[in-house]
Specification:
Shape: globular
CATH superfamily of the largest domain: Naphthalene 1,2-dioxygenase Alpha Subunit, Chain A, domain 1
Radius of gyration: 23 Å
Distance between the termini: 37 Å
Strand order of the largest sheet: 3-12-11-6-5-4-7
CATH class of the largest domain: Alpha Beta
Largest sheet: 7 strands, antiparallel
Bound molecules: FE2/S2 (inorganic) cluster, fe (ii) ion
Length: 447
C-alpha cells in the first residue's frame, strides 16, 4: 500500500487557506493513485463508444490503462490492460471489435469475458499445471449512469447511485432528458503541464470567467449576438454554486423554457432552430424530469469527484506535473444533425486543445501548479477564503449551497473531500450525504 503515513490536513475551512504542496509532491501523488483513483467511481467512457457486442474502447482509470468492452453477451466490462504473464499490454489500439485479446509477447490469449483461454505450451511447457482460473484479466466494477460508463477498482465501494447521490438530481438536467438518451463523440486528447486538481477545482470557479476569458467572451458575444458577461452580473446572479458528495455543480435558471441549453455552438443564426428543438422535446423532458428540472433549470459548469470535468471530460493524472485531458462531446441522439454539427464544432472551437476558452485556462493552471515548485512559493498558502461563512443548506437544493454564484465554497469542499479520501482506511470512513431530493418524473439512474 502506497502511503506517506501522514494524516493530510491541507485545507482550513475556517480561513480557506490551502497547502500548495499537494500540487507537486511526488509522494502525495503516488498516494492519490491508491486512495483516490483506486477507490472512487471514475468515468471511463460512454455506452455509445461500444455499441455492438465484442466492441472495445481503450481508456484509463487514473494512470491505469483499461479496456472497456462489451462482451459476447452484451455485458459491459472493464479490464486492466495488462497480461497476467509478464504484464505486457494486450490491447494496443484505441478501439475495435474482438472476441479475444492476444498478448503480442508470448501469445497468452484472453476472451472478452476475462478468461485466459489459450496459451502456447500449456500441456508441454507448463506440464498442464497452470491454474488458468487464477490468471483471469484483472476486472473493475462497472456501472452506468444514463449511458455514461463508470468503473471502480474497489469492490467495497458503495453503488454508483450512492456515490453520485443527489448530484444526479442536477446531472439529469443535462444527461437524462430524453428517452433515447445520448451519444458521445471523441475524445480530443492533449497533455498539459498542470496538476490534475487545478483543472477540477476550476470547473465551478465562476470568479475567473469574466477576467480569464475576457477576450474570448468578446469574440463569442459577437458570434452569439448576446451582451458580454461581466463580474457584476455574476455577483448579482440568482444562479447557484453547490457541492454534493465531492461533486461541484453550478446551476443556472433558464430565462425561457425553450432557451438553448448550450453555450458553445449556438449562434445568432442557429438559435431559432435550437429553440424549436427544445420546444418540441419539452413534453418528453417534463415527463422524465418533472417541470422544475425540465423547464426552469440548467446545469452549468461542474466536476465529478475526482477527475470528471465539464461533462464527459476526463483529467487523467500523468505525474504530479502533467495531466492528459480527454474531451468528449455528449449529444442527445434525437437532436437534428444540423444542431449536432453545430455543437460538435462549438465544442471543439471553445474547448479541447485548440479551444479558445481552453487556452485561456491552461496558462492559469500551469502558473498555479508551478508556484508550488519553489521553496518561496510553498511558504505561502493558496487563498480560497471567498465566501467563508456564507454557505450552508438550502430548502430547495441539495448539498452545500454557496450564498452567491461567485464563491470558493466548492473549491474548499473539494479539497476537504480529497482529505477524506486520503485519510480514510477504506470506504467505511468516507462519508456520503443522505438523499434529500424528490426525483419527479420517470428518469432513472440507468436512463
Ligand atoms: S507477457 Fe503476455 S504472454 Fe507473456
Ligand atoms: Fe475557464
Amino acid at each position: 500500500m502506497v502511503s506517506t503515513g501522514r494524516t493530510h490536513r491541507i485545507i482550513d475551512l475556517a480561513t480557506g487557506q490551502l497547502d500548495r504542496s499537494i500540487f507537486v509532491d511526488p509522494d502525495i501523488y503516488a498516494e492519490e493513485q491508491e486512495k483516490i483513483f483506486g477507490r472512487a467511481w471514475l468515468m471511463i467512457g460512454h455506452e455509445s463508444l461500444v455499441p455492438r457486442t465484442n466492441d472495445y474502447f481503450h481508456t484509463y482509470m487514473g494512470e491505469e490503462p483499461v479496456i472497456l468492452c462489451r462482451d459476447g453477451k452484451g455485458k459491459l466490462r472493464a479490464y486492466l490492460n495488462m497480461c497476467r504473464h509478464r504484464g505486457n499490454r494486450i490491447v494496443r489500439t484505441d478501439l475495435g471489435n474482438a472476441r479475444n485479446f492476444a498478448c503480442a509477447y508470448h501469445g497468452w490469449t484472453y476472451s472478452n469475458e476475462g478468461e485466459l483461454e489459450y496459451l502456447p505450451g500449456e500441456a508441454e511447457a507448463y506440464y498442464g499445471e497452470l491454474d488458468r482460473e487464477c490468471l483471469r484479466l484483472v476486472e473493475a466494477r462497472v456501472e452506468t449512469y444514463a449511458g455514461i460508463v463508470f468503473a471502480t477498482w474497489d469492490h467495497a465501494a458503495p453503488s454508483l447511485d450512492d456515490f453520485l447521490g443527489d448530484a444526479r438530481w442536477l446531472l439529469d438536467i443535462n444527461f437524462n432528458r430524453l428517452d433515447n438518451g445520448t451519444e458521445a463523440l471523441g475524445p480530443i486528447k492533449w497533455i498539459e503541464p498542470v496538476n490534475w486538481k487545478t483543472a477540477v477545482d476550476n470547473c465551478s470557479d465562476n470568479y475567473h470567467v469574466p477576467t480569464t476569458h475576457l477576450s474570448t467572451i468578446i469574440v463569442q458575444g459577437r458570434h452569439r449576438n448576446i451582451p458580454r458577461l461581466t463580474h457584476e452580473q455574476q455577483f448579482e446572479s440568482e444562479n447557484k454554486h453547490l457541492f454534493v458528495n465531492g461533486h461541484s455543480l453550478t446551476l443556472r435558471f433558464l430565462e425561457r423554457d425553450d432557451q438553448a441549453r448550450q453555450t458553445h455552438g449556438v449562434t445568432g443564426e442557429n438559435r431559432a432552430a435550437f429553440e424549436e428543438y427544445y420546444r418540441r422535446t419539452l413534453p418528453e423532458a417534463e415527463r422524465r424530469l418533472g417541470s422544475l428540472r425540465a423547464r426552469r433549470l440548467q446545469l452549468g459548469n461542474h466536476s465529478l469527484f475526482p477527475n470528471g470535468v465539464l461533462g464527459l471530460r476526463l483529467a487523467h493524472p500523468r505525474g504530479p506535473l502533467q495531466t492528459e485531458f480527454w474531451h468528449f462531446v455528449v449529444l442527445e441522439k434525437d437532436m437534428p444533425d444540423e444542431l449536432k454539427t453545430a455543437l460538435r464544432r462549438g465544442s471543439a472551437n471553445y474547448n479541447g486543445v485548440n479551444g479558445i476558452f481552453e487556452q485561456d485556462d491552461m496558462d492559469n493552471w500551469r502558473g498555479v501548479t508551478q508556484s508550488a515548485l519553489t521553496r518561496m512559493g510553498r511558504r505561502y498558502t493558496q487563498d480560497l477564503s471567498m465566501g467563508v461563512g456564507h454557505d450552508g443548506r438550502h430548502p430547495e437544493y441539495p448539498g452545500v449551497v454557496a450564498g452567491r454564484y461567485t464563491s470558493e465554497s466548492n473549491q474548499r469542499l473539494f479539497y476537504r473531500r480529497w482529505e477524506q479520501f486520503m485519510n480514510a482506511e477504506n470506504w467505511e470512513d468516507i462519508p456520503l450525504e443522505p438523499r434529500v431530493m424528490e426525483y419527479e418524473g420517470a428518469a432513472t439512474l440507468s436512463g
